[in-house]
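Sat 14:20. Reprocessing the chain from the morning session after the first attempt stalled halfway. Input below, unchanged.
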Amino acid sequence: MSPRSVIRAVQHAIGTHPQSEITVSACCLTGGCPWTLSATADLKAADLAAMAHTGRTGHPTFARTFEDVALVRRLELNEGQAAVPPLPAPR
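Finished this time. Tokens:
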């Protein structure tokens, strides 16, 4: 007898890992402007920093980068598995 594979569709969901946080960094896109914002988890402070830069310089356009740790989970959890795995140790 030859081996057989069984393939079935399994639904998944993706979201921010509940033990992590979203960070944002930004830089001004006005030509030659060196303003940047280092990565921070304080999203409101990041918005205020960009608005303060606009108020001082009139530069209205920024590139923002948001980063998080994503967690993909099966919508039907396997019995006996933790609902949320711990975050891996930093490399």
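Residues 31 and 51 are 18 Å apart (CA to CA).
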